[in-house]
Amino acid sequence: MYGLVLPIIHKQGLEMLRGLGIGTITIAIILGLMILQVWIAASFFLQPKMGTADKQKPLALNNRKAFHNFNYFLFFYNVLLGLGACLSRLLISCILGTWLIARIDRTIVQSGYEGADMGYSAWIGMLYVDHYHTNPVLVSFCHILITGHRERRLQQAIKYWYLNQSAGKSPV
Question: Residue 114 gets which letter from DSSP?
Fold first, then answer.
């Protein structure tokens, strides 16, 4: 009644609709920018799929310098987006906390409700990126490959040096 009927009775219906329109446009622009940012990052910066049967692209950047430039120019937008996500996360936690307070034997955000928490989704995404880029097994494997390649190149260089030395000597 306070938001719809009273402004119309007091002849402020157009002002109320103008404020509602500005708020709706603002939210639509923010959501559009979020979707556009995710689409651009997935389309242009991630490496292509490894095989045709893969469901997702690997979490590896294709053009790191362009990604850093893209990230740099969207920094202030992402700061405001993070602030909004923090506030909405607090609001959703308060709502879920009051709704699920009777279940004192479980956590506030139960299994199945994790999708409502943007922080949880960001944490899981960060774990995936850390796993793909700093996995200890992968890092050790790459280190073994690099050192093994260097040792083979050094042994080949020594072998060729001995061959060159023997080719230069004349048999007596």
Answer: G
Q: Measure the CA–CA gap between 160 and 148, rounded to whole angstroms.
A: 18
Structural domains counted in the chain: 2
Q: Which domain holds residue 3?
A: 1-48
Tens digits of per-residue pLDDT, 4-38? 777 788 888 888 888 889 999 998 998 898 888 88
Q: Which contacts qualify for 122-128: CB closer than 8 Å, 24 or more apart? A: 128/59
| Domain presence at residue 32 | yes
Residue 22 lies in a domain: yes
What phi and psi values does residue 61 have, to the nearest 5 degrees? -80, 140
Residue 6 Ramachandran class (φ > 0 left, ψ -120 to 50 alpha, else beta): alpha
User: How big is the CA angle at 118 (ends 117 and 123), to the nearest 5 degrees?
Assistant: 105
